[in-house]
Amino acid sequence: MASKTSAFALFLIFNFLLFTFASACPSSDKCPMDALKLGVCADVLGGLLNITIGTPPKEPCCSLLSGLADLEVAVCLCTAIKANILGEILNIPVDLSLLANYCGKKVPSGFQCA
């Protein structure tokens, strides 16, 4: 019985040490890519906001965003907007949602570009 108790105590100590040194998942408050690359999205946004014949090209902009989760897309586009990479933005929430939706992504509810 003593060997079971000591084995259990050793197991508990090992778990305690393991979970003490484990790190949490990194927060998603930073864009995982270079936001300067999102300058190609300015043409898409301009085409969506202006009345033009045809549709703006999806390929350069949306292919950059395709591998990102919705929250990462929102953070990256917000970073690009705040850095004025996408040009003049008149309505941040609308333009952010418009561009994300055009590329098949959704801005998470409650997300604020601040």
From TrEMBL:
Keywords per UniProt: Signal
Signal peptide: 1-24
Name by which UniProt lists this protein: 14 kDa proline-rich protein DC2.15-like
Keyword 4Fe-4S belongs to the record: no
Ranges of residues in domain Bifunctional inhibitor/plant lipid transfer protein/seed storage helical: 31-113
Highest taxon above the source species: Eukaryota
TM stretches of this protein: none
InterPro entries (alphabetical): Bifun_inhib/LTP/seed_sf, Bifunc_inhib/LTP/seed_store, Hydrophob_seed_dom, Plant_LTP/defense-related
Gene: LOC108511777
Classification of source organism: Eukaryota, Viridiplantae, Streptophyta, Embryophyta, Tracheophyta
